[in-house]
Design goal:
- It contains 26 helices and six strands.
- The protein has 729 residues and is mostly helical.
- Strand 3 and strand 4 form a beta hairpin.
- The N terminus is likely disordered.
- It binds lanosterol.
- Lanosterol (LAN) binds next to helix 9, helix 17 and helix 19.
């Protein structure tokens, strides 16, 4: 029955309902490959009951009994763990909604539509519900991320998404959103990536897209701007984009696409001068205006290179090499791909290249479901295929900080977590690593899971620390041999930059001047790797912990590495005493890490000027109620901003952890923070979701829902451990 599919294109009207029955959703955990299943069949639903985790993620009542009121911080940790334990998934890890960015679901839905990937009515329905719930009440628009102000990027792409899944153009919410799009100047004012997706759909013409020439992939490796030197996310996005741009590939025209041409523009579609609008952009979307250099290059590409110099055979050669690189990315990840952005593009590339019935297309389609997540508002697209290794590593470390790893009460939970990390370690480098420009990864861990397979300096470090902690705790098996731990160390030691600092996926391959080629407009700092206090600290602390247990293995390399890394940390301190955070909001997050780095070489509040200034910075931001409350604006502006809604538990925990790492001597401010965290704990042991926690590329926020458990418990646990006799309540 074709009417039950949304994207067969033969169906007249796709099925879409008011809502789905939330008691039918189940999260399927296949060794950390997450897919949400909707059990329409009553028998099947009875045989597979909802777990606490399912209900929690879906926002359904858990009906858990109240726990005895915590009398001290350690009791609060135990209560928190009693709750958090229920969220551990069958394969041993923790997962969660990893939403926030508002451009991921559109990319995925457009890629499904363009490749005629059917989606069931319950997907269409909950995508609609999620986007309606997230539209800004005043203007019906969407921003770059869930807390961001309305932008053309967010509003155009999410409007298109709603129309594709079957929402009528005359639905009141759509009328309102459309008015906002028109007020902002229409879709001609959208940034590069939106123009790209609209052209793939055929809602815009390719002439409106600034050039994405695959020929760049043909540049010899020594050329300073060669794409292999770019930040991995940018070059993987550029890859698929360049292939489709070169082909000027377009989806089959449908009624909806024809209608969108009339809905999204202020001008009459047939009269739009596409090429003249390549650089049109609304100020709201122009976080990183294009450089003069890039504008000049684009002009030359459009007016000289493309019409006069670009031969068919050169284009074909470039497309062929791009296609091979796409293939390598797909095969190295079993079509999971680095993140949902390049996964969506690669799906369309495979469809264009291999045809609708190809295995490559089918496998992409299957794996795209692993990015989807259902929560109380509806269905969204996660930033990656999950947070598995990352959040599990923090959960384990929290137990250590609270001194609870030996408590038999938590043994089964921790054992399962350790077994998970054991199975998720990447035992080999990727095939033909050098050819596809990949970084060594043997012995490492990914942020999500080993299917995705990209080692990240801090993900390797946090997981390694977690493994060492448990394997050195009496009562735990040694699952990961010394040799496998040495493999992780060898890989970690490749991550240092000449400055001493560490970046994320790879050491830097070019200078930050490459940012002049940043064409995305909506993001900052995307073109190359930077050094990050977060990543640098994670590596420093992992190496230090390792050296305590294996003092002889590469001891000189490690000493040198740590020494240079901490020197870099010092050099990155801002005049106000804090550090800028790239992956969490913002100064509070990074200052916590930097203080830990300093402490790892014995520099603390009383012995080090750097540490003292870091602590003073944090203390100067403590609020009346004892908490901290940095706002995401800090990431955009590089200046501390207070959150208008007041103290946040995660932020408060980060500040407390930093202060305690630095051995800040006065217990009073710490007690006030601890008290706030304890007061916010619910009778069943949980903490409620507050403001968004994470960030990338300076402008886009992303949710880390498990932080309200792992970091709160870490702060409370550390406090309990250090001040066992202090009375807080
Ligand atoms: C992530 C998620 C995890 C994050 C940490 C481990 C927390 C960080 O310390 C290092 C960088 C890393 C791995 C990271 C990099 C960028 C990611 C993958 C993300 C923020 C999640 C989503 C984001 C990705 C770039 C989203 C797609 C957007 C593009 C601009 C391509």
């Amino acid at each position: 029955n074709i009417t039950s599919d949304s994207f067969g294109h033969t169906a007249k009207k796709a099925r879409i309902e008011d809502k789905t029955d939330y008691s039918r959703w189940r999260l399927h955990d296949d060794e950390s490959r997450h897919t949400w299943q909707y059990l329409e069949d009553d028998e099947a639903a009875k045989e597979w009951p909802q777990t606490h985790a399912d209900k929690y993620f879906l926002g359904l009542p858990l009906d858990l009994p109240d726990l005895p009121t915590a009398q001290n911080p350690l009791d609060a940790v135990r209560n928190g763990l009693t709750f958090f334990e229920k969220l551990q998934l069958p394969s041993g890890h923790w997962g969660c909604d990893y939403g926030g960015p508002m451009f991921l679901l559109p990319g995925t839905v457009i890629s499904w539509y363009a490749t005629k990937t059917p989606i069931p009515w319950y997907y269409a329905t909950e995508i609609k519900n999620y986007l309606f719930a997230r539209a800004h009440p005043e203007d019906g628009g969407w921003g770059l991320h869930i807390e961001g102000e309305t932008s053309v990027f967010g509003t155009v792409l999410n409007y298109v998404t709603l129309r594709l899944v079957g929402v009528d153009a005359d639905h009141p919410n759509m009328v309102k959103a459309r008015a906002t799009i028109h007020k902002l100047g229409g879709a001609t004012h959208a940034p590069h990536w939106a123009k790209f997706w609209l052209s793939v759909l055929g809602v815009a013409k390719w002439d409106i897209v600034n050039p994405v020439p695959p020929e760049l992939w043909l540049l010899p490796d020594w050329v300073p701007i060669a794409p292999w030197r770019w930040w991995i996310h940018m070059r993987q996005v550029f890859l698929g984009m360049s292939y489709l741009w070169s082909k000027k590939w377009q989806a089959e025209e449908t009624d909806t696409i024809r209608s969108l041409r009339n809905e999204l523009f202020v001008e009459d579609w047939d009269t739009i001068n596409w090429a003249a609008n390549r650089n049109t952009i609304h100020p709201m979307d122009n976080y990183h205006p294009k450089s003069m250099v890039l504008n000049t290059i684009n002009w030359l590409l459009v007016n000289v290179w493309n019409p006069y110099l670009r031969t068919n055979s050169l284009a074909a050669k470039a497309e062929a090499w791009a296609s091979e690189l796409i293939n390598m990315e797909d095969l190295n990840t079993d079509y999971a791909d680095l993140a949902p952005v390049n996964a969506a593009m690669n799906l369309v590339c495979c469809y264009a290249r291999d045809g609708p019935d190809a295995y490559s297309v089918r496998r992409h389609q299957e794996r795209s479901h692993e990015f989807m997540w259902v929560q109380q508002e509806g269905l969204l697209c996660n930033g990656t295929n999950g947070v598995q290794c990352w959040d599990t590593a923090f959960a384990i470390q929290t137990m250590q900080d609270a001194g609870l790893t030996q408590d038999p009460r938590w043994r089964p939970m921790l054992m399962k977590a350790l077994e998970f990390l054991d199975r998720q370690q990447m035992r080999e480098n990727v095939k033909d690593q050098a050819k596809c420009y990949r970084q060594q990864r043997k012995g490492g861990w990914a942020f999500s899971n080993k299917d995705q397979g990209y080692a990240v300096s801090d993900c390797v470090s946090e997981a390694l620390k977690a493994v060492i902690i448990l394997q050195k705790t009496p009562g735990f098996k040694t699952l990961i041999s010394d040799q496998r731990i040495f493999d992780a160390i060898d890989t970690l030691l490749t991550y240092q930059n000449p400055s001493g600092g560490c970046s994320s996926y790879e050491p830097q391959r070019a200078g930050t001047w490459m940012e002049v080629l940043n064409a995305a407009e909506v993001f900052g700092n995307i073109m190359v790797e930077y050094e990050y206090p977060e990543c640098t600290t994670a590596v420093v602390t992992a190496l230090s912990l390792f050296s305590k247990h294996w003092p002889d293995y590469r001891s000189k390399d490690i000493r040198l590495f740590v020494d240079r890394a901490v020197k870099w940390i010092k050099s990155a301190q801002k005049p106000h005493g804090g550090w800028y955070g790239a992956w969490g909001i913002c100064f509070t997050y990074a200052t916590m890490f930097a203080l830990e780095s300093l402490a790892s070489i014995g520099e603390t509040y009383e012995t080090s000027e750097y540490s003292k200034r870091g602590c003073d910075f944090l203390l100067s931001k403590q609020r009346e109620d004892g908490g901290w409350s940095e706002h995401y604006k800090a990431c955009e502006t590089s200046e501390y901003h207070e959150h208008p809604s007041g103290s946040q538990v995660v932020m408060t925990s980060w500040a407390l952890i930093g202060l305690m790492k630095a051995k800040y001597p006065d217990v009073e401010p710490l007690k006030r923070g601890v008290k706030l965290i304890m007061e916010r704990q619910q009778p069943n042991g949980e903490w409620l979701q507050e403001a968004i926690e994470g960030v990338f590329n300076r402008s886009c926020m992303i949710s880390y829902p498990n932080y309200k458990f792992t970091f709160t418990m870490k702060a409370l646990g550390m406090f309990a451990h250090r001040y066992p006799d202090e009375k807080v309540v």
